[in-house]
Amino acid sequence: MSVSRRIICVFTLTVSCPSPSYSLYSRSFVFFRSSPISLVRSLRFSSSLSHLTMPQNQRRGGYREQRWKENPNATRLSPAMESASAAAVTNRFGALSIAEQKSDVAVPSTQFESVGVANHTPVQGQKAIGKPKLYGTVSGATTVEVEKAPTDQTTAEILGNGAQTVAAEKSSAALSKLFRGNLLENFTVDNSTYSLAQIKATFYPKFENEKSDQEVRTRMIEMVSKGLATMEVSLKHSGSLFMYAGHEGGAYAKNSYGNIYTAVGVFVLGRMFREAWGTEASKKQAEFNNFLERNRMCISMELVTAVLGDHGQRPQDDYVVVTAVTELGNGKPEFYSTPDVIAFCRKWRLPTNHVWLFSTRKSVTSFFAAYDALCEEGTATPVCKALDEVADISVPGSKDHIKVQGEILEGLVARIVSHESSKHMEQVLRDFPPPPSVGASLDLGPSLREICAANRSDEKQQIKALIQSVGTSFCPDYLDWFGNEATDVHSRNADRSVLSKFLQAHPADYSTTKLQEMIRLMREKRFPAAFKCHYNFHKISSVSSDNLYFKMVIHVHSDSAFRRYQKEMRYKPGLWPLYRGFFVDINLFKENKEKAAEVAKDSNDLVKNVNSNNATLGKDGLADEDANLMIKLKFLTYKLRTFLIRNGLSILFKEGPAAYRAYYLRQMKIWNTSPGKQRELSKMLDEWAVYIRRKCGNRQPSSSTYLSEVEPFLEQYAKRSPENQALIGSAGNLVGAEDFLAIVEGGRDDEGDLETEREVAPSSPTYPVKDTISKDEGLIVFFPGIPGCAKSALCKEILNAPGGLGDDRPVHSLMGDLIKGKYWPKVADERKRKPYSIMLADKNAPNEEVWRQIEDMCRSTRASAVPVVPDSEGTETNPFSLDALAVFMFRVLNRVNHPGNLDRASPNAGYVLLMFYHLYEGKSRREFDSELIERFGSLIKMPLLNSDRSPLPDSVKSVLEEGINLYKLHTNRHGRLESTKGSYAKDWAKWEKQLRDILLANAKYINSIQVPFEFAVKQVLEQLKTIAKGDYKMPSTEKRKFGTIVFAAVSLPVSEIQSLLDNLSEKNPKVEAFLKDKNMKTSLKRAHVTLAHKRSHGVTALASYGLFLHQNVPVDFTALLFSDKMAAFEACLGSVDGEKINSRNQWPHVTLWTDEGVAAKEANTLPQLFSEGKATRIDFNPPITITGVIEFF
Fold first, then answer.
1. One GO MF term, please (predicted)?
2. Counting Cβ atoms within 10 Å, is residue 797 exposed (0-12), middle (13-18) or buried (19+)?
3. Which of 241, 348, 707, 1119 has the highest CB neighbour count under 10 A?
């Protein structure tokens, strides 16, 4: 039915709410019908009506008592129907059937589930804009219930005899017309075109902490200590993200839908219902689907299964754990708090995670201490036991990690939540006791692994078998996986023009406005993300030439996009977050002129009203930077399997054992692994490399089943010693997976749903400089810079420096501007010819592709590399500031006869420098420096700007910003086309002249802000000489500075202990005689009173001292005890803030001296030796007091 033939019926309903907090609420309802059918609509309401925007306690947790309900038996007209005599079709899209009616019969009364008829209702009480759902009557067929048969059987199989032919023909015709490209290609955007976007599924935004992990921990402790927040900790199950929004809302993986990942997810979730509800499962599954779709909700889960590839340990069972519940509404998604998630899950008997709450300073400091004690050896049993003991509240998960996944624990996630969370959790635990699992003993049919094992031909066969096994009550149609019979030959991928048309069309509601804003920003800033559009098979019957439906997947390719987007949100608080797992339904449609004018006016008013009411606080009233405080804490027993073994397979088999060793050593340095564990792991990994290469030859094991090779090796290795067992954590319970592994066509995960985990460090390894630079290997000096950074001038100075770099290795330079052909292969050839030389690579090395080539050269030619970068503060998204860019441009425009023809005679010199500048876009200076240090183990900064310089003149700043904006416009339209060509050629010519004029006018300023070149050369030479000698100390990258802890102690100043011994020696002949032949000043390096030891006293005891970390405590020395083998002070500990500090040792003491071959712990036996007459005791009266500091070691 065309828009021109629709009759628009509009009425306004005003609801007065009794609560004074609710204002009068006006809502316009719009109905469309096709002439000549008359439409009579009656509304009946429940006794009480509530405003759409409820208080927080009503919106969360699903406790909504005041509602308008939609009659499940209500009849609707499909918008595809042209007349009342059209045959009845099943309305799959609303999950409602269309009954036989006469044209003059009124449509039955309808109750409304939510305020407003349409799904398009704006949030915050705003006026509805756009097309609502359509209602009407048809005749000529009997009612058919969609739930009784999957739509995969095609429309003709589902419909009754009176309608099947017509419906099948209509569906086939619509699909044929759509896929020929006619509808989308001919759909033009004009003033009557509108877009309506609804989020269908999403997971939490990915927030990257700007602060270091240690700073985040400190801030968390501070907030909890002040009563501003509670810290929540949950287990990180080792699986993949799965989201579910109902059988029509859809099942989604992280970046895809309609594939093996979502089929497995639906099967496992369906099986969870069977386990929980037993014989009631089918009924509850249907109710759950209805609930999610009626309330526009999505649940997110960690899908843990052995059929989708290996992580850290192959799970014993296949299961899901609910990690988030989201109300999608028609505005910004709202995520339930964890107590509300638990209430929701217990109501529906869904699996929950293990959660701990820490609401006091003592508990939160104990938690971090417990993690530090366990981070290198922790497995599920000791970790959960320790956290149970130190937490204020512990809520066990309904799925026991130890039983269903195993002992290898990926990690913990700690985040800041409302300070009221503890009270809320206690209330939920009282109101919602753990539900029974009545179906656990029943025969649930074939398992996931059995189904996958029985269907090995291809991915499609496995998907179909899984979906059929789920049953029609939970999965009544297969549209997202297979479409229907008419769509089998068509691709579901839509043309890219969908996105541009969506952005050009007028937004029909507030959500659409915000989503358009988000996508425009990401495209403008060129974030690494894709916006994949697909045809929406659920809406095929509603498609017409002026009404198109699509699904959009927002696929973020790199975590850098989340970091950059966060920065944009700080400048634009009204921006919606960039979510992980982001799926949107899009409707492009047209309205007539009158309605279009009304919609345009209402849309403008809507945006103005909402923008003026943007909130400034994050969730729970916390400031955004605190509301998003989160830290992930992983365990070494997991990381050694995934990061060190699995992710290192390609390096080991493609580049050899030496490259593999470099890789794992660098990873351990990044993690700040303790020296002892590094030695143990190195020994084990070297042995693993020999074992697997000998067994597999040149055939690299698959990362999907790598545990089949790893676990037998680890099991045998662990049996050799208790130390090996602690290193491995757990081994020997391997579950075979080869026979039931899910089939992913092409052998890889195109959508990134089973993405290989990556640490912060880049994938390519190299040797840290301090450990590897020696006289028998070479050195590559390279320059990640921009033209004009003075690298060639610097290289000349280095070549001419007296004595070179302080050793006898020859120094060579290869100038990029004089090399014909590819530069870096020439450097590699030169390195092979002169392997022990120092090579100055005189060419800008601006990106990771070049850095990887340099790393490859280092491995293949036995060399180290050191980057030299111009020092600059940078911007939030670029390591070079505008001040530095101005200097570089000024230098380039003042040089003549440049070998590379980049000088004042170059007509596009400014454009070329902007091109280099943008090669670094997306990294702050801190991120840039950190990545170079992590890749190459060193970094030399060449001084560039005076620190006390005055600000950049406005004219210079403006011309640079204008050039940057022009560059973005140019590259968005023309890509890498030269600036002298294309539609902006005249603008570039004008800007280049303006740039020269302004820089020349400010020459005095630009010269004044630069440090003298001689000073810069001197600084670089000194740093290079230090590196060449091997004395270089790697600078901080502000990574995790804390490591594993073994014991807690009161650290005492050695100088005061020495003074005390000297005084005693002068006053007591026995002490003097004892100390006479002992050089205490040399032997006594450290003094402490041990409080607790992990091995002797346990993790909880050790963690309890976290409350007093770095606090001063007085220590009273009451006696000196010594024998011919050892000596120690007897100690009595004082108090911190009124709380007595007690040592877990039976005899608190400070060990002063032990004879050769005697362990320090033997000093504990001195009181016993004294009682036996084998030691001497000298009491102090009064005691002697020295103040110490409580520390972890």
1. RNA ligase (ATP) activity
2. middle
3. 707
